[in-house]
Amino acid sequence: MSKKLYVGNLSFSSTEDDVRDHFAPYGEVISVNLITDRETGRLRGFGFVEMDDEGASAAISALDGKELAGRTLKVNEAQEKPRSGGGGGGRRGGGYGGGGGRW
Fold it and tell me: Which keywords accompany this UniProt record (predicted)?
């Protein structure tokens, strides 16, 4: 089995190879995914690392609060993004205020 780790507070100049090299001593790194801004393509300062279970636990213990490229990392087990049922949220009606027509 593998675990996905959240890695926060990454330097905006970090590369996938930098992150992989930092996590590799703790176990097999299956994948690294650094999140970028859709419009600018720049790193957003966080990403995800997928590792084997034992390596993931060791990496969390060893790297949470440690520095990479001058930034203190935040490393923990990634949380599943909640699936939102039904779309649209709680908006009702539309337009610019209701009622009150002209006289």
Answer: RNA-binding
pLDDT in tens, 16-58: 999 999 999 999 999 999 999 999 999 999 999 999 999 999 9
Q: How many residues does the chain have?
A: 103
pLDDT tens, 79-97? 987 776 655 555 555 555 5
How open is the CA angle 84-88-89, to the nearest 5 degrees?
70
What is the span of the domain harbouring residue 40? Answer: 2-77
Number of domains the chain contains? 1
For residue 20, the domain's CATH number is 3.30.70.330
CA distance 62 to 82: 28
